[in-house]
Design brief:
The chain is α/β, with parallel strands linked by helices. Helix 11 crosses helix 13 (about 335-345). The longest helix has 17 residues, at about 45-60. It is globular, with a radius of gyration of 24 Å. The mean pLDDT is about 90.
Length: about 550
């Protein structure tokens, strides 16, 4: 596969430099937009965004919050981003709180990060005020509350700036810009410290690999690094007009209204679109016809011919609207789905990231893409494979876990971060993830099996919505195990079937998979779940709860 030069992109080491550079001269250009409940568009230009940032950061400095820990407790919103950018501008630390956690867990996160004030959406105001035993250190996103809201602070900051009472604070690239909590699929969440330079370098690295369009859309949660670094910072640095969504119920509506070229998302959304597409095709009695066309299109594309078929164009427009590019991460993406979408004219680029790496480690490129990989390693990042495990080093690596040097020491070796993921690099430099080190099933004879490989095979069964493969005890000793699968059935494909019929059908399908596997890797137990698996905000299954 022929390599081509990285895209030209500007790099920053300080948020204030990035904000100043993007805003000055682009005051009338649209920066961030969103839709209200009625579907009406709202948004801000770079001029308005810049003014709000300067005013708010001035008031934060005036309140003595420069360098302090400021928690953000909200769904995606303009105010969320305004708080984050303003905090970074004046050297404060934005503590990004996962709102999908329980109140108890949120309070634990606030404790762990030593927050001194909270900026929150109105729905989280009571939790925030209760945490501080009053409203003194809580500022809401409510425009109507002029005294204890972000908008009151902006007005006060403007007065300070208008009066000439400006205060400057020193901010350096190695200062912590944010504390972000790991997704906690295996254990409890850990507070990751990311520097200004680590985050900004990573955001520009993403752009160096991937060429984006003029309009981008994201519904990824900002309190995770993928949602913030890749879907917000990268898009803004790339000078795209960014549409944001904070309500899962209106995502599909907002995508159609925004007419984006580029969308950033997780596999679950693409799987939902894929299922919906084939259900519609089946209802029209055109399944066989579309499958034949896709095979023809795949062949033509392989020999450099991009012939368009009217029926496929109509399906693409119905399912994706104007979207031509989708950047997908957070979990494993089906190769089959990506290939089918590509035949329809939508390129899906899969990437790999981890919170401690700010998060991007690798991503496929527009003209260098292998669907079975997570792409090429980013420019300022190094990757090596040691005993099968992926190790990462570079400017994007975390400063450590906040106030937990013991946990930091466990994962850092001579500047290399141990990801815990099992993978390999091919001859072209593409990275593949083959499993999670902690998930490996180890047998008494020393053989090992990666559950993710088996899950990928079982996931292809139409009856399966979600699956977790694990080692189930089958004897006296702890290492006397056999491979088991816990399955949550697909409600649509199993409609009208009772539990016995579902189990019987799954046993038959998994039996066919077993025929292709060595004896020790074969699935011996099947457990049918009645409730969905508990998942993180990025829709990854919390394996430790299975």
């Amino acid at each position: 596969m022929k390599r081509y030069p990285l895209n030209q992109v500007k790099y920053y080491s300080l948020f204030r430099d990035m904000i100043d550079d993007l805003a000055v001269g682009n005051e009338s250009k649209k920066a961030i937009s969103w839709f209200n409940r009625k579907g009406e568009e709202d948004g801000v230009t770079w001029g308005q965004f810049y003014s709000d940032i300067l005013n708010l950061q001035e008031r934060l400095i005036n309140l003595g919050l420069a360098g302090k820990h400021i928690a953000i407790l909200s769904e995606n919103s303009y105010e969320w981003l305004l708080t984050y950018f303003s905090a970074a501008y004046c050297g404060a630390v934005a503590v990004c709180i996962d709102i999908e956690q329980s109140t108890e867990t949120i309070e634990q996160m606030l404790d762990m990060a030593d927050v001194e004030c909270i900026f929150c959406a109105e729905r989280y105001r009571s939790i925030s005020e209760e945490y501080f035993s009053g409203s003194k250190s809580v500022y809401s996103f409510n425009r109507e509350d002029s005294e204890r809201s972000i908008y009151g602070l902006i007005a006060e900051g403007k007065n300070l700036r208008d009066s000439g009472a400006l205060t400057d604070v020193a901010v350096t690239p190695d200062m912590t810009a944010s504390i972000v909590f790991t997704s906690g699929t295996m254990t409890y969440s850990k507070p990751v410290m990311l520097s200004q330079e680590a985050i900004l370098t990573n955001a520009s690295d993403a752009l160096a690999n991937v060429a984006i369009g003029d309009i981008a859309f994201t519904a990824l949660p900002f309190y995770h690094t993928y949602g913030l670094t890749c879907s917000v910072l990268s898009m803004l640095i790339g000078k795209a007009h960014l549409y944001i969504n904070g309500n899962i119920k209106t995502v599909m509506r907002d995508i159609q209204l925004a007419n984006p070229h580029t969308m950033l998302t997780v596999p679950l959304m693409l799987e939902t679109i894929h299922s919906s597409m084939w259900a519609s095709v089946a209802a029209a009695g055109k399944t066989d016809g579309l499958k034949k066309l896709m095979k023809i299109k795949k062949f033509l594309l392989s020999v450099g011919i991009n012939k368009k078929f009217k029926s496929m164009e109509l399906i693409r427009e119905k399912c994706f609207g104007s979207i031509k590019l989708i950047i997908c991460g957070g979990a494993h993406m089906s190769q089959n789905i990506m290939e089918e979408f590509y035949s329809l004219g939508v390129l899906v680029l899969q990437g790999y990231g981890i919170t401690e790496c700010a998060p991007l480690v690798s991503v496929n490129r527009n003209k260098m893409n292998k669907f079975d990989s997570v792409g090429l390693v980013s420019a300022h990042t190094e990757v090596k494979i040691e005993d099968g495990e992926i190790l990462v080093r570079g400017k994007n690596i975390m400063k450590g876990y906040y106030k937990r040097p013991d946990l930091t020491e466990d994962v850092m070796t001579d500047g290399w971060f141990r990801t815990g993921d099992i993978g390999e690099l091919d001859k072209d430099g593409f990275l593949r993830i083959t499993g999670r080190k902690k998930n490996l099933i180890v047998f008494r004879n020393g053989k090992k099996v990666s559950p993710e490989k088996l899950e990928a095979k079982i996931q292809k069964i139409p009856l399966v919505q979600d699956v977790v493969v694990y080692g189930a005890a089958s004897g006296v000793s702890t290492d006397d195990v056999q491979v088991a699968a816990s399955i949550f059935p697909n409600k649509e494909t199993t409609a009208g079937m009772d539990s016995y019929e579902i189990l019987e059908a799954l046993q038959e399908a998994i039996g066919l998979i077993n025929e292709e596997l060595p004896l020790y890797q074969q699935v011996r137990m099947i457990n049918i779940r009645e409730q969905e698996f508990s998942k993180t905000a990025l829709k990854k299954i919390k394996r430790y709860l299975v």
